[in-house]
Amino acid sequence: MKTNYVAGFFVVLIMLLIGCIDQNSNKFIELKASDILGNPKHKAFSYGGYRGKTRDDVPTVKDLEEDMKILAVMGVKLLRTYNTQQYAHTANLLKAIRNLKKEDPNFEMYLMLGTWIECEGAWTGNADHTKGNSGNNKAEIETAFAMAKENPDIVKIIAVGNEAMVKWAVNYYVTPKVILDWVKHLQELKKQGDLPKDL
């Protein structure tokens, strides 16, 4: 009888240990973009957490944490942003998600970083839609690169250009070649091992 109790105790102990290992495994870090895209368990949302009338009024990390909690309850697990470096929104959003993951290792929110690509002379009367705004576009891509490299458990996708090829965006649209050049650049960084291969 005593042997059965001891054996039962060890079975329960082993089950608890296995359960702890499984619960504490970093299962979210291992997800790839292909695991997330098109997965009904990972609802997506195009997100700008601005609360003021202009994008210069950047939401605080605390504001964004509140939004993340609300979106998570709604089942949203993937957010698409609009730019990386022109405003502090995306940097604050990464901080907010990181804070929530520290509070709860099982908190799950991923980003599709939008990189704002525009033409040379965007927002002026002299827009050249066949060329990119080299200063802005390079800064967007470099910032996306740094964010993806520093946050591989959160940043799973980089969207190059978002709405940059639609002709109704008369102030800034670019030809497909401008976008494709940046996509090739990022793909090359992946081949070299500078970015996660599953990004």
Overview of the structural elements:
- The chain has a four-stranded parallel sheet.
- The chain is globular, with a radius of gyration of 22 Å.
- 44% of the residues lie in helices and 14% in strands.
- The chain has six helices and six strands; from the N terminus they run ααβαβαβββαβα.
- α3 (61-73) crosses α4 (89-103).
- It has helices at 2-24, 33-36, 61-73, 89-103, 134-150, 176-191, and strands at 43-46, 76-80, 110-115, 119-120, 128-132, 155-160.
- The relative contact order is 0.12.
- The chain is α/β, with parallel strands linked by helices.
- It folds into two domains: 1-26; 31-191, no CATH class.
Give the % helix.
40-55%
Q: How are the strands ordered across the major sheet?
A: 1-2-3-6
How many domains? The number is: 2
Net shape? globular
User: Beta-sheet strand percentage?
Assistant: 5-15%
Radius of gyration: 22 Å
Give me the strand/helix succession: HHEHEHEEEHEH
End-to-end Cα distance: 56 Å
Strand segment count: 6
Low-confidence stretches: 1-29
Total helical elements: 6
Average predicted local confidence, pLDDT: 85
The description of the largest β-sheet is:
4 strands, parallel
Structural class: alpha/beta
InterPro entries: GH
Protein name: Glycosyl hydrolase family 17
Could you list some keywords that capture this structure?
two-stranded antiparallel sheet; GH; alpha/beta; 44% helix; Glycosyl hydrolase family 17; 199 residues; 2 domains
Secondary structure blueprint with pairings:
Elements: H1 2-24, H2 33-36, E1 43-46, H3 61-73, E2 76-80, H4 89-103, E3 110-115, E4 119-120, E5 128-132, H5 134-150, E6 155-160, H6 176-191
Parallel strand pairs: 1-2, 2-3, 3-6
Antiparallel strand pairs: 4-5
Helix pairs in contact: 3-4
